[in-house]
Amino acid sequence: KLDELRTQLADLDGPGLVREITRLPAAKRAVAFRLLPKDRALAVFEDLDPSVAAALLSQLRSDVGSSLVHDLDPDDRARLFDELPASVVRRLLSGLDPHEAQMTQDLLGYPPESAGRRMTPEVAWVPSDATVGQAIKRLRRLGNKVETIYMVPVLGQGRRLEGVVSLRGLLTAKRDTPLIDLVADPISADTHEDQEVVARRVRDHGMIGLPVVDHEKRLVGVITVDDAMRILAEEESEDAARAGGTEPLGRPYLATPVWRIVRSRIIWLLVLIAAATLTVNVLDYFEETLEQVVALALFIPMLIGTGGNTGAQTVTTVVRAMSVDDIGLRDLPRVLGKELSTGLLVGAGLALLAGTLAGVIVDARVGLVLGVSLVAVCVLATGAGALIPMLAKRAGVDPAVVSAPFITTLVDASGLIIYFLVARAILGL
Amino acid sequence: KLDELRTQLADLDGPGLVREITRLPAAKRAVAFRLLPKDRALAVFEDLDPSVAAALLSQLRSDVGSSLVHDLDPDDRARLFDELPASVVRRLLSGLDPHEAQMTQDLLGYPPESAGRRMTPEVAWVPSDATVGQAIKRLRRLGNKVETIYMVPVLGQGRRLEGVVSLRGLLTAKRDTPLIDLVADPISADTHEDQEVVARRVRDHGMIGLPVVDHEKRLVGVITVDDAMRILAEEESEDAARAGGTEPLGRPYLATPVWRIVRSRIIWLLVLIAAATLTVNVLDYFEETLEQVVALALFIPMLIGTGGNTGAQTVTTVVRAMSVDDIGLRDLPRVLGKELSTGLLVGAGLALLAGTLAGVIVDARVGLVLGVSLVAVCVLATGAGALIPMLAKRAGVDPAVVSAPFITTLVDASGLIIYFLVARAILGL
Q1: What would the pLDDT profile of B356-393 be if each residue is shown by its tens digit?
Q2: CATH code: domain of residue B143
Q3: What are the pLDDT digits (tens) for B30-67?
Q4: A168, A155 Cβ separation under 8 angstroms
Q5: Are B423 and B289 contacting, i.e. CB atoms less than 8 angstroms apart?
Q6: Would you say residue B44 lies in a domain?
Q7: In a domain, B308, yes or no
Q8: What CA–CA distance (Å, rounded) separates B372 from B295?
Q9: How many domains does chain A contain in total?
Q10: Which of A351, A371, A372, B228 could disulfide-link B202, Cβ–Cβ 3.0 to 4.6 Å?
Q11: Domain end call among A243, A267, A286
Q12: Domain limits at B34?
C-alpha cells in the first residue's frame, strides 16, 4: 500500500505533487510526505499553502520540521509563521541561526498584505560606481544565493536605490562601460504598500522583479515576478469569493473544514436575510392589493429574479473594470450613462417577452403591469449595480465586497414597491 | 488646449498612458496619440488592447499606421490583425518585409487562444553540443533581438528541443563546461494547447519562459512570463464576467459601445427569464393554496432570495476551486459532502431567525413552514451549486459558464415547490 503511494507520488511533477499532498485528508498527509525523497519534500513544503504547511508541520517529528523550516526562504518562512501558534514560532526561531532568524523577524514586522511582508530580503545588488564587468563578476558569485539576478538594483551611498539594470543589459554591453550609463530610473515599491498594488505594478510594467525600499529609499528586498503571480492569484480568489457573497476561505477548498466554510458564508447570509425582511414589509403593506389580484403574485419571482440578474451583471462588470483600473471614480457619469442605457434596452426586450406571456396567461392589463415594472426594475438594477460599488470605492471600501447577492437583495424590495405601485395605477386599485 | 493635453500625457508612466489613451472617446484618441513622442507612441501602441489599437489604426494616416505595425513584435501584430478587417490585414501584410510577414502569418495559422497563437516566434536558443562559454557568447549577440535570454532552449538535431538552461545557470558555471551537463528536462507546451493551461503551467512552475514545440518536438516559439500574466488576467476577466451571468466584453469597459454591452447580457437574461417562467407555472399550480393563505406570499422573495444567495456562494466557491485545480472530478463525493453539510448548517441558522420572524408577524405554523422550507432550500441550493458545475466539467463544458444567476433561477422554481408542499402538509390544506 505504501509502496503504491510512493510510486504514485514519484510520477507527479512539482505542482501536481503539491496538489496531491494538499488534497489528502490531514491524517494521510504526513504519511505521504514522509515517503518523499528529501529534496522533493523541501520543494513541496515550500510551495504548500501556508495553512496546509502549518498543519503538516504539527504532524512531523520536531527535528524534521525544524530542518524544513531552516531550509525555507525567509519570505516563505514568514508566511508559514503567520499560520502557527506564537509558542511554536518562538521555538522554531530559536532553532535558526541568528541571521536567518533576524531576516524572518524583520519581515514579520511589516503589516500583513504589505510589500515588505512578501518581499525576498536576499537580493543581488551592485554598487553604482562599478563597471559592467565588475557587476557581472559579482552576479556570477551571488548567482546561487539569491532568488533572481535578472533584475539588479544599483545602490549608491548608504544602500540607497539609484536605479536598476537588467542582466540582459549588462551582458550585451561592453565590459568596461560604467554601470551608471545603463541604469534605468527605478520603478520601485515601498515596504508598506499593499501587495496587490505592487503585484499589479510588476505585471503592468512587465518586470522580472521590483525593488522594495524603506522610507529613506534604502533597498530592503525585492518582489519577484513569481511572488507577483502568486499574490495576484490569491487576490483573484478573494475577489471571486466576495463576488459570490462569501468571505474568502484563504486556503485550499479540500483542506478547509466545514465549520470554516459555514463561517465564511453565514455572516453574509444573515446580513442578506435581514435585508430581505424589507421584502416581507413591502408585501405586507401591499397585502390588500395582492388579495384583490392574487395573479400578481405569479410574477413576483420572475420580476425580482430578473432585477437581481440584471443587477448581478452590472455589478460584476463594474467591479471587475474597477479592479483592473479600466475605470475610476472620475468615470462615474460615463459608467452610469452606459449602464442606465443598457438597463433600458434589456428591460424593454425582456418586458416585451414577459409582458406578452403574462398577457396570455392572465390578461392584457397584468401583462402591461409586468412589462412596465420590468423596464423600471432593470433600469433600477443597472443604476444601483453601477452606483453602489463606485460609491463604496469613494468611501474607501473595497468595491469587491459589493457582491451580486447584495445588489440582488437590495433590488428585490424596491422592485416590489415599483411593481405594486404600477399595478395600482394601471389596474386602478 | 493641445499643449495642456501634451503636458498631461508626458507626466504619465507607461501603463498610465495606456489607460488614459484607452479611456478617451474614440474621436479624441487619435489626437492624443499624435501628441506623443515617437518612441512612446510605439510603446503605447504595443500595450493597447488589440480592439482599441485596431480602432486607433483606422484613424491614423496610413503610412503612420504601417510604420507602427512594422515595429510591433510578431505576436502583438497577430493579435492586432485578429481585430482588423481582412482587406486591411492584406494591405498591412504586403507592406511588411517577407520574413516579418511570414512570421505573422504562421502565428495566425494557429487556433485562437492556443499557445501557438500567443507565443513569440523569435527565440534565443543554443545548440546542445556547445559549451557554456559558447552559449553565453551567442546570447550576448542575440540579447537585443529577442524577448528573453533568461530561459534558453537547448536544441539538438533538426531544432528538436532537448532541454532548457537558465542564464543564471550558465553564468554561475565554468566556461568550458559542456552545456549538456546543465540542461534540465524541459517543461514545454504544444502549439495547440489552450493558452490558459499553458499560462498556468508557467505560473505553477515559477518559470521565466516556456518553450513551445510542434508535434515533432521542434521549437517554434516561447511563452514568456509577461505573456502568461497577460493571458491569466484576460482569463480572469472572462471568468468574472461569466460568474455574473454575462458574456465577456473582451475589451476595456469604457471602449465598449452600449450595443455591445447589451449583446453581452441579453442572451443570458433571455435564457434566465425563460427559465423563470417555471416559477410562474409553479405559482399558477399552487394558486388555490396561495388564495387560501395569502400570507404565504409575504415570504416568497425572502425564501427564494436566500436559496439564490446560498446557491451563489456554493457555485462561486466550487467554480473557483476547480479553476485553480484545488478540486477535480474525482473529488465530487467530498465536495458534495462538504456542501450539503454546509447547506444544512446555514439553513438551520437562517430558519431559526426567519422562522421566528414569520411566527411573530403571521403565526407559529407559517413560521414552521418557512423554517422547514429554508433548511430544505439551502440544502438544495448547496447541492445544486456543487453538482452542476462539476457535471458541466464532466460534460466538457467550462464550469465558469455555470453562473450564480443560473443556479439562482434554477433554485427559485424548485424552492417554491418545496415551500408549497411543506405549507400544504403543515397547514393541512
Answers
A1: 999 998 899 999 999 999 999 999 999 999 999 999 99
A2: 3.10.580.10
A3: 999 999 998 899 999 999 999 999 999 999 998 899 99
A4: no
A5: yes
A6: yes
A7: yes
A8: 16
A9: 3
A10: B228
A11: A243
A12: 2-109
**HSE (CB half, 13 Å, CA atoms) of B251?**
20
Regarding whether A179 and A100 lie in a shared domain, the answer is no
Quick check: is A352 in a domain?
yes
A137 and A101 in a common domain: no
Give the other-Cβ count within 10 Å of A365's Cβ: 15
* Candidates A149, A200, A280, A357, partner chain B, best to mutate (most B CBs within 10 A): A280
Same domain, A294 and A415: yes
Percent of chain A with pLDDT over 70: 100
- Do A222 and A364 sit in the same domain of this protein? no
Residues of B in contact with A302 (CB under 8 A): 273, 276-277, 279-280
Q: Which residues neighbour A303 within 8 Å (Cβ) at sequence distance 6 or greater?
A: A370, A373, A374, A377, A415, A416, A419
Helix axes B74-81, B98-108, angle to 10 degrees: 60
Whether residue A342 and residue B302 make contact (CB cut-off 8 A), yes or no, is: no
Collect all residues of chain B within an 8 Å Cβ-Cβ radius of residue A182: none
Q: What is the CATH number of the domain that holds A374?
A: 1.10.357.20
With a CB cutoff of 8 Å and minimum separation 6, the contacts of A363 are none
Of B261, B283, B313, the CB nearest to A298: B283
Contacts 24+ apart (CB under 8 A), B230-234: B230/A203, B231/B118, B231/B195, B231/B196, B231/B198, B231/B199, B232/A229, B232/A232, B232/A233, B232/B196, B232/B199, B232/B200, B232/B203, B233/A203, B233/A232, B233/A324
Q: Exposure of A195 by Cβ count < 10 A (0-12 exposed, 13-18 middle, 19+ buried)?
A: buried
Residue A249 lies in a domain: no
Q: Is B206 in contact with A187 (Cβ distance < 8 A)? A: no
ipTM of the complex: 0.91
Span A334-378, pLDDT tens digits: 999 999 999 999 999 999 999 999 999 889 999 999 999 999 999
Query: Distance between the two ends of chain B, CA-based, in angstroms?
Result: 76
**Sign (positive or negative) of CA dihedral A230, A231, A232, A235:** positive
Q: How many CB atoms lie within 10 A of CB A37?
A: 11
Residue-wise burial string across B246-268, b where 16 or more C-beta atoms lie within 10 A, e elsewhere: bbbbbbbbbbbeeebbbbbbbeb
| C-alpha dihedral, A306 to A307 to A308 to A313, nearest 10° | 90
Contacts of A405 in chain B (CB under 8 A): 308-309, 312-313, 404
Instruction: Specify whether A59 is located in the same domain as A173.
Output: no
The reply to whether A53 and A24 lie within a common domain is yes
A327 chain-B contacts, CB cut-off 8 A: 23, 253-254
Phi then psi dihedrals of residue B218, to 5 deg = -85, 140
> Other C-beta atoms within 10 Å of B28: how many?
12
Residue B300 sits in the same domain as residue B350:
yes
Examine the domain organization and report whether A289 and A412 are in the same domain: yes
Coil, strand, or helix at residue A28?
A: helix
Answer with the one of A52, A82, A109 that is the final residue of a domain.
Answer: A109
3-state secondary structure B59-80: CCCHHHHHHHHHHCCHHHHHHH
- The CATH code of the domain that includes B105 is 1.25.60.10
